Amino acid sequence: MHANDVAANMAALRNGISESCKACGRAQDDVRVVAVSKMQPEERVRQALDAGHRLFGENRVQEAQKRWLTLKSEYPDIRLHMIGPLQTNKAKDAVALFDCIETVDRPEVADALAKEMKRQNRMLSCLIQVNTGEEPQKAGVAPADLPDLLRHCREQGPGITGLMCIPPADDPPVPHFALLAKLARQHGLKDLSMGMSADFTKAIPVGATYIRVGTALFGSRV
Ligand SMILES: *Cc1c(COP(=O)(O)O)cnc(C)c1O
Q1: Distance separating alpha carbons of residues 72 and 144, to the nearest angstrom
Q2: Which of 22, 67, 83, 136 has the maximal Cβ count within 10 Å?
Q3: Of 102, 105, 107, which Cα lies nearest the Cα of 124?
C-alpha cells in the first residue's frame, strides 16, 4: 500500500473485492467502495478522482463541506456518504451536501433529516447505524431498539434502505457483520455498510453492499 499511488491501491482493492466475491459467489458490482477521505490530503483524493472513483465518505459535516463543495462542482457525478455521527443542528448542511446518510441512530436525527429533505426537496438515501457491540461511547441504535426506530422512520421518514455498523475494535468483526445482516434480513432492508480497510474481505461473504475503505486506499491519515 502506497500513500502516493492511490490508483495502484484502488486496483489492489478491486482485486481483493473480486477474489472475495468469487470465493462466495457474489457479483462484484454488488459491493461498492465508499472511499473514506476524512483527514486525507486533497492530492490523494484527486488521485482517486483521476482514477475514476466517485463515491466518497466523510465523518464530519464541516470538514466535508470544505473539501467537497468545490470538488462537487468540478465532478457533478460525485456521491458522498456521511459516515460519522450526525447532530440535529447539522441536518440542514448534511442534506444539502451528502447523497446518503449512513448514521441515522435516533428519532430526533431522523426527524431533522426528514424535515430538511422535504424543505430542500432533496431525497437522500439513509441507513441506520446499529451499535452491534452495545458500546456506551459509540453512536448507533442498540439492536433491541432498532424495530422502534425503523417503525418511526417508516411512519415519518426518512426512507431507510439499510444498516451500517462499526464493530468494537477489539472484537472479531464477523459476528457483528452477521448480526447486522440478520437484522437487515428480518426487516427487509437491502443495503449493508460494513467492513473497513482491515476487514472488508470478511464483510463481503456476510453480505456487505458498501465497504468503507480509508487507509488501504489513501495511506495513513494526516
Ligand atoms: C474512518 C472510518 C472508516 C475507514 O477506516 P479505515 O480503517 O481507514 O479503512 C470507515 N468507517 C468509518 C465510520 C470511519 O469513521
Answers
A1: 38
A2: 83
A3: 102
- The dihedral formed by the CA atoms of 170, 173, 176 and 178, expressed in degrees to the nearest 10: -160
- pLDDT at 3 > cutoff 80: no
pLDDT tens across 50-101, in order? 999 999 999 999 999 999 999 999 999 999 999 999 999 999 999 999 999 9
CB atoms within 10 A of CB 78: 16
**121 Cα–ligand 1 center, Å:** 30
The predicted model scores a pTM of 0.97
The residues lining ligand 1, judged by C-beta closer than 6 Å to any ligand atom, are 36, 38, 59, 83-84, 166, 196-198, 212-216
User: Which of ligand 1's atoms lies nearest the C-alpha of 216?
Assistant: 9
